[in-house]
User: What shape does this take?
Amino acid sequence: MMTDADLQTVEGQVDRVPYSAEGAIANGAFAGVWRTYDANHRVRLEIDLTGAPCPDDGKLERHLRDALVARYLPSLRVPEVEAAAAIDWTALSGAGTAHADARMPRFLAALASPEPLVCRYGYTSMAMSVDIEQGSVGEASAKAVPFFVALLAGDSAAPLGRKYALAYLEGITDAVASAEEPDEIFAACAKALRKQVPALRKIKDKAIKDLIEAIGELE
Assistant: This one.
């Protein structure tokens, strides 16, 4: 059982990106300031997580992620995706749901976080709204395209977030290319992708070049 002021350390990797954090836990909750560190053990973030739930169930990483999402993510300002807040995402169909998640602006902002746990949260949380492995897309997929490109072209996103943004663009492109019965949603996605090609051309990266070529082959 955890007692008052138990000092804890959590470390691991998110898609090969290492992270670590340390701080205190008291009576089933985070206590005081927690610090997160990068691969060189330099402090990346100091944040007061006092009171955020952390039951003694062996899932410290998940509880830390949830605490960071609740306490840190709302204060994260990402110019490249601020316009996402003006979109009524719930009025759009998702890739695996009738309506996209209203929290899409939060998920997109999370992709810019240097905190790997927060970044992965954004990536995995938007899957049902944007693109799932079965090759399905929705109206929200087309709306998300310019924000993914903005994250790739801008300065806010860390390498992991750029990787995730590119993965979604590739997924949407593949879904459109492989559609057996394209409809207006697939057409909207293709249009959104083509519109972003000029911005993508400014990014000097082999994977981006391959993406541009794939977009160029869309009907």
User: Anything to note?
Assistant: The chain has nine helices and four strands. The chain has two domains: 6-59, 74-216.
